[in-house]
TrEMBL record:
InterPro entries: Acetyl_CoA_COase_a_su, ClpP/crotonase-like_dom_sf, COA_CT_C. The keyword Membrane does not apply. It catalyses: N(6)-carboxybiotinyl-L-lysyl-[protein] + acetyl-CoA = N(6)-biotinyl-L-lysyl-[protein] + malonyl-CoA. NCBIfam families: AccA_sub. This is acetyl-CoA carboxytransferase. Pathway: Lipid metabolism; malonyl-CoA biosynthesis; malonyl-CoA from acetyl-CoA: step 1/1. Residues 5-258 form the CoA carboxyltransferase C-terminal domain. It comes from the Bacteria.
């Protein structure tokens, strides 16, 4: 497909002073979807010590697609909430390939409220194609669960650092990404829906996913330029979990130094820009 005659000029205006992109947007999508050399639990355990997982939404079920609990970042207690795609076929089916159900979001909501009660900072680790769209999930309030989480995060008087470490799809990812800062790894993406879904809706042709990925501007580079994300961190592979700790610790210390009302005011102002 030929580019519009003004498209090259538009791209130059978007990234003044930045080098030419080295990879296509769809290559970023493929990297975001690729299996990691570490599991979600290894990522959590590299970030915090003595992680104690908490289960259930105190209403209906426990969702294995959302891992949440408390650990220690040196001498700071931290609530960590992560999406999990599973490590084998059985786990992937149980987690719907990383797509949480309503009770997963309600579990996250419960843990966030608990963190606010004790003024513990929250770190979310996001790798999900989106909320699970199954009949049972919809019947049990999938949309309401996501909305409740967003409303709560808007007023939560404790620091929230959201980190996209793989796929970040639609409201399913946004529900966990209402943070004081939003970071992305260089092997992640963040979008309103998948490129395949976008192409199917816009052009009635899912095979144009590569073209859709370019239009959607879902790469970390695109989103940093638009200030949707605040920082891009390099996923260094097997040692990334421990490397992430070194990046997160000073940021949480900075956020913890702010009074709760300032945190909330700044967080709301950040998202009102969009």
């Amino acid at each position: 497909m030929e580019k519009h005659p003004h498209q090259h000029q538009h791209e130059a205006r978007r990234y003044p002073g930045m080098p030419k992109k080295e990879t296509s947007a769809y290559a970023t999508v493929q990297a975001a979807r690729a299996p990691r050399p570490y599991t979600t639990r290894e990522l959590i355990n590299g970030l915090v010590a003595n992680f104690h997982e908490l289960h259930g939404d105190r209403s209906s079920h426990d969702d294995p697609a959302v891992i949440g609990g408390i650990g220690w970042l040196d001498d700071q207690a931290v609530t960590v909430i992560a999406t999990d795609k599973g490590n084998d076929l059985t786990e992937r089916l149980q987690t719907h390939f990383g797509s949480p159900e309503p009770w997963g979001y309600r579990k996250a909501l419960r843990l966030m409220k608990q963190a606010a009660k004790f003024h513990r900072p929250i770190v979310t680790l996001i790798n999900t194609p989106g909320a699970y769209p199954g009949k049972e999930a919809e019947a049990n309030g999938q949309g309401a669960a996501i909305a409740d989480l967003l409303v709560t995060c808007a007023d939560l008087p404790t620091p929230i650092l959201a980190i996209l470490v793989g796929e970040g799809g639609s409201g399913g990812a946004l529900a966990l990404a209402f943070g004081d800062e939003v970071w992305m790894t260089d092997k992640s993406m963040y979008s309103i829906l998948s490129p395949e879904g976008f192409a199917a809706i816009l052009w009635k042709d899912a095979s144009r996913a590569k073209e859709a990925a370019e239009v959607m501007q879902l790469t970390p580079r695109d989103l940093l330029a638009k200030k949707v994300c605040d920082r891009i961190i390099t996923d260094t592979g097997t040692d990334f979990p421990s490397a992430l700790k070194a990046e997160v610790k000073p940021k949480l210390a900075t956020l913890m130094a702010l009074d709760p009302q300032t945190l909330v005011t700044q967080r709301q102002a950040r998202f009102r820009k969009f």
